[in-house]
């Protein structure tokens, strides 16, 4: 079976861990977990008649922006950048992170998730944000790790993207 490494990146508390839990275990937890360390979860999805094992790398309880380590990204085929629809600043962090990731990974596929869509959204990406991020609109999703909205769809999309570029 094909196995692909996917890294979750984004500002503190945007919902990286919660999105992975929703996708892998169909669980949502309001509690904030501050365990430090890298957690690797996996789930298989079938895409275009092929099974793909997604290895989902998540740094728990760490501000990925300040703690960014190129070694975390090594070997990743896909990067899921997460922002928080209630905190406009998280899109600025997303832009900076994308830039940093590109210094380490040259062929990665990117997804942008604007998470917490179950809460009242305070912002949407501007055209300028999208130009800076350079992520196709097909690869941007408003998600909720709480209700599960678009979560399955988004992870399936990254599976599709990394499969196409193997
Ligand atoms: P991380 O630091 O990016 O991994 O963020 P977490 O997954 O730990 O989530 C941070 C906080 O936001 C936790 O209290 C979660 O319960 C909450 N949270 C995460 N995703 C959502 C969501 O889609 N909707 C709501 N309402 N809360 C969320």
Automatic annotation (TrEMBL):
Instruction: Output one GO MF annotation.
Output: GTP binding
CDD domains for the chain? Rab
Can you name this protein?
Answer: GTP-binding protein
Q: Which UniProt keywords apply?
A: GTP-binding, Nucleotide-binding
